[in-house]
Structures are given as structure tokens and as C-alpha cells.
Amino acid sequence: MREIGAGKIAPAVVQFSEWLAAFGETSYDHQSFFASPLGRRAKALYYRKRFLGTLASAPMVLCEAFVPSARRVFWKPQRFPIADAHYAMGFAFLAEVFGTAKYYQRAVDFLEALDRSRCPGYADYCWGYPFDWETSGGCIKEGTPLITTLPYVYEAFAQVYELDTDERWRRIMRSIAQHALEAYRDIEIAPGTATCAYTPSPDDPGGVINASAYRAFLLTRAAVDFSEDKYREIANRNLNFVLASQNPNGSWYYRSSDPDRGFVDHFHTCFVLKALAKIEKLTPSSQVTKAIERGVAYYVRTLFDGDGLPIPFSRAPRLTVYRRELYDYAECINLGVLLQGRFAELDERLATTVSDLLRRWQQPNGSFKSRELLLGWDNVPMHRWAQSQVFRSLCFLLLQSQKVSDGRVPRRTSWMRSPERPVQARPTVNPPTHIPLMHHG
User: Fold this and answer.
1) Of 110, 120, 186, 326, which is least packed with CB atoms within 10 Å of its CB?
2) Angle, CA of 382, 91 and 428, to the nearest 5°
3) For residue range 144-158, what is the model confidence (pLDDT) as tens digits?
4) For residue 206, which of 255, 169, 170, 274 has the smallest C-alpha distance?
């Protein structure tokens, strides 16, 4: 058996959690260079007039490539709901691994923050970005709900609910599911097949493949959690769109409507494959299984370099100013754990990625470098990009290794909070010292 040293992962996530407590829960972001009015105007010009827009955006791009700390000149630190959701899940995993109430309470703290940061003006719970986001389709205003954020928040509330059975979390889960069901229009592509909108905007054109994958998973999960078929019917329409959008080589473009300008990148490929893997686990389907098999074959063949490490693109949309992306490492680990033991090459990529992440990317203070640039590193810690995702992925890997080593542990334990029982400490559980990877054939 091949092993990943969990003896290194456990100290790494504990050190990270200590860094997070000291650093705080706001940060700069990948989009900080373009979140200001000036940055948004430059980006909008790029989408309308490529040459002039390139000139206008050049100062931000050069800063991103050579002076990442200049983000502070362009925008401000903010709190990001999608990061809060990942942190909540990560700490919930650690609560199970170590059996200590402090990690459970940290998870609850992040859920409380999510409760406070929901988008205003909507009857049901929903979340988006805390900045105006300039896209090729126009500006998505701050506080606009995003279907790509909702599933993570739903999973965070569901995960803590499985620990403490607090009905408050379940009510929020149902509200999220209702918003996902009703607020995003479907655009029918063929009978029984529809892409969903990215936002609730009535003129949102849809076509973003990972958005439909996210919604398909969220509504499938809600159909199971609440035993209501109304969710499953819409989920299946979006799922059919994702399956139909897969290219003959196993890849997915970012958007189905412009394949000539489409790109194939690492973490969006992982987003789609993760959603399919979760749907397959909830409702097994031979079509989904085949799509996963083809997608993984493409993924391991084209989105890693000769050393087995993640690369950003197999088909890039433009010149990139970095070599590697922390986000890619996070999503590689998440996907690898979900599918662990099924694909030999993916298991190898998982082991190599984790080893490199812990060896080269974690800094002495516990945080992770954000990007490996053409020259040097981007060391600005950004919660959304992708400190929270890496933390969650390593905690997920650690918990799954414990289940493999010791057998599945019950989620709810006596030290968790419940309406009848206050939080109490419990003796610490030692995590396993290694993580086994299966041999295949």
C-alpha cells in the first residue's frame, strides 16, 4: 500500500488553525485588484475592447505577477461567505478527528457568521460575493446570490447538523434548498435537459457548466435530506446538461455556449467531478459513473505536469502570470479523497500533491502560499483563494484516513452541543499516522 503521512497533516492543520485565530477572518482576495471602481472599469474595457482593455489592466496584472502585496492599494480586506463555509466544514472534520469541543465550537462560530452575512432582500437564505464582480456578461453586484456558493454553505450547515442535530441548522438547510430551487431559472437545451442561471437575474444566460453541476448536487442532496422529489426533478435536468456538455476527450469547458473561446482549467474541472461524485454516492447512476471515469482519465492526463503536480490549465484562455495555484491543490485533494481507491493514477496524484503542499507551500506561521509565480511566490493569504479550501481538504483527508484505520466513527457524540446538553470537553483522539492508498490490480 502507498501511504501519505498523516503524522504531518495533523500538525499542519492544527498550526493553520492557530494562524487563523491570530490572523482573523477577513482578508484580501484574488479579485482585490479588480474590485475597486478603477479595476472594474479596466476589466470591463478588456471584455469590450481587448487591446485597450489589456493596456488599462496592465498595471493590475503586473502587480499581481510581481508585487502581490499591492492588493492593499486597490481594495480592502473582506469576509467571504464561501470561505466561512469551508472553515466551518474543516473545523467540523477536526471535531470528529480529535474529539474536542473547541473545534466543534469554531465550526458553530462560522455558521453564526454565515447566518449574519446572508444576502439582504431575499426571503430565503442565500449568499454571494461582498464586492462588485465584473464579468464578460456584465457586473454582478455585491450581495447578489450565486449558485456556486450555495452548495458549500448548505454542506456546512448539514455537516454540523449531523454532529449536533440542532434544528436551527436544518431549517436553514431547507431555506437554502428552496432558494436554489426557485430563484435560478432553467434554460431548456433539450427535453429533460436544462442549464441553470448563475444568479437570480432574469436575463442571466446560463451555460456555465460548474454552476449547473453545483445546483444538480445541491438539489439532489436536498431531495435525499428532506425526502422531497420536487428537488430531484430539477436536479436531474441540470445533471443531464452537465453530462451532455462533456467533450469527447472527457473534459468540460467552463461555459457550453462558447467552446471556441472556452477554457479547461484545474479547479473548475474538479468542481464538476466533485459534484458528480457526490451525486453518484447519493443516487448511483451508470451514466454518472461513466462521465466520472472519462473525466478523471482526462484530468490526470492533462492537468498535471511531469512531476505529477497540478497545473492551472490544459487549455488556457489567455497568458497566465503564475505557475501553480493553491486552489488547484485544494480541489485536487478534495476530489482525490472523494474518489480514493477507484483510480490508481488519481491516487498517485493525490499523494504527490499532498506531499508537495506540505513541503513547499505551508509557511512557518501556518498559512499557505497563494500562488507560485513565474518569479517567486504570492504570499498574501486569501481566505477565498484558497486558504479555507486547503484547510477543509486536509481536514477531510485526515478524517477519512481515521475512518479507514479505525472503522467509521459515529458522528454525534456526547460532548457535542444539543438543546439538552452543554458543550463539554472530551479526551483527545490521536489521528492515524499514515493514510493508505489502495493498489489497483
Assistant:
1) 120
2) 135
3) 999 999 999 999 999
4) 255
How does residue 16 score in pLDDT terms, banded at 50, 70 and 90? very high
What's the whole-model pTM score?
0.91
**pLDDT tens, position by position, 174-204:** 999 999 999 999 999 999 999 999 999 999 9
**Surface-to-core class of residue 284, CB atoms within 10 Å of its CB (0-12 exposed, 13-18 middle, 19+ buried):** exposed
Please name the residues in contact with 227: beta carbons below 8 A apart, sequence gap of 6 or more.
none
Q: Who's near 365: CB < 8 A, 6+ residues apart? A: 19
* Residue-range domain boundaries for the chain: 2-27+77-437
Other beta carbons less than 10 A from residue 67's beta carbon: 11
Which distant-in-sequence residues (6+ apart) come within 8 Å of 149 by Cβ?
81, 82, 85, 127, 128, 129
As given in the structure block, the three cell numbers for residue 19 are 494562524
**Residue 416 pLDDT exceeds 80:** no
The number of residues in the chain equals 441
Q: How far apart are CA 123 and CA 411, in angstroms?
A: 32
C-alpha cell of 292? Answer: 466520472
Tell me what percent of the residues of the chain surpass a pLDDT of 90.
Answer: 73
pLDDT reported for residue 261: 60
* Average of per-residue pLDDT values in the chain: 90
The whole-number pLDDT of residue 262 equals: 77
Give the CATH number of domain 2-27+77-437: 1.50.10.10
**Which residues, in sequence order, are CB contacts of 385 under 8 Å at separation 6+?**
29, 30, 326, 327, 370
* Torsion from C-alpha of 343, 348, 350, 353, nearest 10 degrees: -150
Residue 82 to residue 389: CA distance in whole angstroms: 9
Q: What whole-number distance in Å separates Cα of residue 321 and Cα of residue 57?
A: 13
